[in-house]
Design a protein that fits this description.
Layout (H helix, E strand, L loop, with lengths): L4 H19 L10 H10 L5 H10 L13 H7 L15 H40 L35
Length: about 170
């Protein structure tokens, strides 16, 4: 297994340099055009000249300016993107608080719509139940005797699963 390790390391570096070159914007490529760098990496990858040349000289590397912070957390504190340069907690950020208020208004409106729909459905069920227990007379008159009367038998029960959905 150890005899394959150098080959795998060369292959990994070759692939990394190739993908890094392809993903690098043209504006960050130094010295040669991007297409030439890709060819150099592919042609001289087996002997590591192409990938090492790309990593050393082909791409612009951004260095952190002095005072920029040595850790990512320090850098983010100094480069927060806030106009004042200071980091704001979410409860002090007016844009964040405004977005929360807007979301709350949308959620409250949705909840009111759901409650109104629920009240409407409950009222429909109450009307159906009171109509069924009030003598069986519905909109069809004083009860028909055409054989389709469902006042006896197992089909007498009607639950929410038996009622068709209403369209609003």
């Amino acid at each position: 297994m150890l005899r394959y390790l150098p080959f795998l390391l060369v292959l990994a570096l070759w692939i990394y340099a190739f993908i890094d070159c392809l993903n690098t914007p043209e504006s960050q490529v130094r010295g040669l055009p991007k297409v030439v760098w890709v060819l150099i990496i592919l042609l001289f990858g087996e002997v590591l000249i192409g990938p090492i040349a790309w990593l050393a000289a082909g791409k612009q590397r951004h260095r952190v300016a002095g005072g920029g912070g040595s850790t990512p957390a320090e850098w983010h504190r100094n480069h927060s993107g806030h106009p004042g340069g200071k980091w704001l907690a979410p409860d002090d950020n007016p844009e964040f608080l405004r977005s929360l208020r807007e979301e709350n208004k949308k959620d409250e409106a949705l909840l009111k719509d759901w409650e109104a729909d629920l009240r409407r459905r409950e009222e429909e069920l109450r009307r159906k139940e009171s109509g069924a227990s009030g003598g069986g007379t519905g909109a069809g008159g004083a009860g028909s005797s055409d054989g389709n009367d469902r006042t006896s038998g197992k089909n007498d029960r009607k639950g929410p699963e038996d009622t068709p959905p209403t369209t609003a």
